[in-house]
Amino acid sequence: MDKLNDASMLNGHPWPMGATWDGRGVNFAVFSAHAQAMELCLFDEAGMVELTRIYLPAHTSDVWHGYLPGAKPGLVYGLRAHGLWNPGHGHRFNPHKLLLDPYARDVVGHFKWQDELFGFDRQQANRMDTRDNAATALKARVVHDDFDWGDDRPPHVPIIDTVLYELHVKGFSQSNPKVPAALRGTYDGLAHEGSLAHIKALGVTALSLLPVHYSIDEERLTQRGLSNYWGYNTLAFFAPSGALASGQHWATARDEFRAMVKSIHAQGIEVLLDVVFNHTAESDQTGPNLSFRGLDNASYYRLRADNHSFYENYSGCGNTLDIRQPRVLQMVMDSLRYWVSAMHVDGFRFDLAPVLSRGDHGFERGGAFFTAIAQDPLLSRVKMIAEPWDIGPGGYQVGGFPRGWMEWNDRFRDVMRGFWLHTSQPPRNRGDFALRLCGSSDLYQHHQRRQRPPAESVNYVVSHDGFTLLDMVSYNERHNLANGENNADGHGNNMSNNCGVEGPTTEPSVNALRNRLQRALLATTLLAQGTPMLCAGDELGHSQKGNNNPYCQDNDTTWIDWDRADHALVNFTARVLTLRRQAHPLGNHWYSGLQCASGLADLAWLQSSGAEMQTHDWSDTTDAVLGCLIGQPGRAKTPLLLLFNPQASDRLFALPAGSWHALLDTSCSGPEPQRHGTTTYMVSAHSLVLLVAG
To answer: CA angle, corner 178, sides to 174 and 183, nearest 5?
Structure first.
């Protein structure tokens, strides 16, 4: 192939990483500590024809770089890395394979699994595959990041007021008749009034989007005719997925994403991204050379100490990014800054977050990643949420993240499910319930570091990963056969849905009980101390037909069915969120049980008789009813009383002295009845009640 004379490319700078246009030309900078040479390959506009190759002329601190005068945005390029082919020592360089720049802002091409994408011969794994893949490999396009943000400002919702709403960009609007057909399932579809009206009326403050980074479908899924719908298989950490763009109003997926963020911000709602920096789409030693593996396998990935041909797999997805390496950490930090500065997002939820701070000997809560975030003048101001576990040694770290980080609290999830649905053995007792209801003090108040506020506990009973809320009270067993894994995937079964009937039914009494349980679980999540998170669709009765692991179901299993929305449940959820916003029953401070200004204890626990709970009462599993008297609410001016009855029969509660008015009774599906009590209150089975004094 003809090559430009090396003199046509200037040395340029080893920064910034990736391809950067300065108005006169493009600077290219690529990290590889072990490569012996790096070629820049230029293509036609469609990315189909390789026009020329140029060796990057300079090498500074493990960064290969060069400057191409006259080059402009729109230029399509790929990389070829020269070096050792020695998998046993961790090196998988193969210059026959075109590689995607890890800093690509725009990915060109449509990924399709083919043998020539693999660096090794799939019939003889230790031998290099010498077929050239340039015609079909993914490429990067040089971009000029310019967007008219107008008066867009981050909402900066305080953590005390934050209500998270987890959603999938496609699934949320794909079946919404209020969104134009051409926009459904896209960034534009989420930004449309037909979507935002529901979100705004509901009262949530932050959308937590499932991954939008450019990702690919695993080969095993495509062979089954499935796809990685959730998107937890990232290949490009700087590029939004083009599959989620409508292409109707904007020239690029980047601009359509930005316009979406701008529209959501205009409603006072934040946008958070679910990001997957624990692994990449290149999988394990049987995976392809698409980007990182071919550029510097030994630097980007954690390799097994006993055999560098294999990967440490703390993610469960085949490989683990090695954040111990400074340039890999830099890539993560650069990506996060890019999405905040250039795309205006308001924070991140980190998938399998312990991976990001794994040192040589396990998880380090004072590790380099946390230190880098804490000192960063931009990232230290946005919301950071951890999924605080991975599958490596010591990977369960709930409560172990630094102050300022919010964490998914799976202990809240498990206890609340067990309390209301009786799904745990032995049964959840009142002690478990009270501990999780009030901020999980064992995790966040007393630990091996400074005290953390209760709001750092992200409380949820349902996320994208598992049964929907309706399915949780409707199915005893998972129904995942459509996933092609013989119903062996997912997180086990419900054990009992508490309703005696599996799946859909026309039996009124069963449906009434299911509705009541949904309301109780929603209200508990939204009124508990901490930061609540809803999973999109749970507020309107979305069902996945019992599939509790629909990561590969890009169809009406996962797309919210708006035509069957339970509007009474939507209105109920909005009403509870209004109560939370106005009264904030449990504040963002730790309770002591001592007397406060109201003359009552700031927090007291009551039996149904009105007597205070005694030590032996907490572990009693024969009686689960409980009262929580809040003498010092977060916002209400007078004391509040929460009454919980998860049992199958109504229960009469003796009330504290005074007059009490019901703000919420989850046994009611419609507007609250004007119910008062001076001495007693009958709490219906499977229900909770919120009363206010006066």
So the answer is: 45
Q: Is 115 a catalytic residue?
A: no
- The DSSP output letter for 539 is G
| Residue 132 burial class via C-beta count within 10 angstroms: exposed 0-12, middle 13-18, buried 19 and up | middle
Distance separating alpha carbons of residues 267 and 255, to the nearest angstrom:
19
Q: Which of 203, 168, 208 shows the shortest CA–CA distance to 184?
A: 168
Q: Return d(Cα 400, Cα 334) in angstroms, integer.
A: 25
pLDDT (0 to 100) of residue 3: 46
Domains in the chain, CATH or no CATH each: 6-141 (2.60.40.10), 160-282+322-583 (3.20.20.80), 604-693 (2.60.40.1180)
State the pLDDT at residue 125.
86
Distance CA 346, CA 356 (A): 20
Question: Does residue 351 have an active-site annotation?
Answer: yes
Residue whose token pair is 């809560």:
365
Helix (H) or strand (E) holding 335: helix 326-341
Residue 65 near residue 101, CB atoms below 8 Å: no
The per-residue pLDDT for range 11-31, each reduced to its tens digit, is: 999 999 999 999 999 999 999
Distance of alpha carbon 6 from alpha carbon 359, whole angstroms: 41
Helix axes 368-375, 326-341, angle to 10 degrees: 30
Catalytic residue among 188, 217, 270, 351: 351
Q: What is the average per-residue pLDDT within 528-552? A: 98
pLDDT tier at 424 (50, 70, 90 boundaries)?
confident
Q: Answer whether 246's CB lies under 8 Å from 311's CB.
A: no
Rg (CA), the chain: 27
Residue 147 Cα to chain centre, angstroms: 26
pLDDT band at 448 (very low <50, low <70, confident <90, very high): low
Kindly write down the DSSP assignment for every residue of 348-388, as one continuous string.
EEETTGGGGGEETTEE-TT-HHHHHHHH-TTGGGSEEEE--
Tens digits of residue pLDDT in 296-307: 999 999 999 999
Quick check: 676 pLDDT over 90? no
Distance CA 211, CA 199 (A): 19
Name the CA dihedral angle for 495, 274, 444, 160, rounded to a multiple of 10 degrees. Answer: -110
Q: How many whole angstroms separate alpha carbon 694 and alpha carbon 687?
A: 23
Residue 682 · residue 512 · CB < 8 Å: no
Q: Is it the case that residue 481 has pLDDT exceeding 50?
A: yes
Average pLDDT of the chain, as a whole number? 95
In 3D space, the residue among 170, 131, 76, 12 whose CA is nearest the CA of residue 560 turns out to be 170
111-140 residue pLDDT tens? 999 999 999 999 998 899 999 999 999 999
pLDDT digits over 300-326, tens only? 999 999 999 999 999 999 999 999 999
CA-nearest of 35, 99, 65 to 292 is: 99
- For residue 18, give the amino acid letter: G
Locate tokens 């060109």: which residue?
Answer: 108
Q: Which of 418, 428, 548 is nearest to 492 (CA)?
A: 548
Alpha carbon distances (Å) from 79 to 239, 301, 409, 534, 559: 17, 19, 42, 42, 38
Q: In what order do the strands lie in the sheet with 676-677?
A: 604-606, 626-630, 640-645, 687-693, 660-665, 676-677
Q: How do residues 483-509 score in pLDDT, each as one tens digit?
A: 999 999 998 766 567 777 888 999 999
Catalytic residue among 166, 274, 322, 387: 387
**pLDDT in the model for residue 450:** 66
Candidates 143, 164, 147, 87; CA nearest to 118 is 87
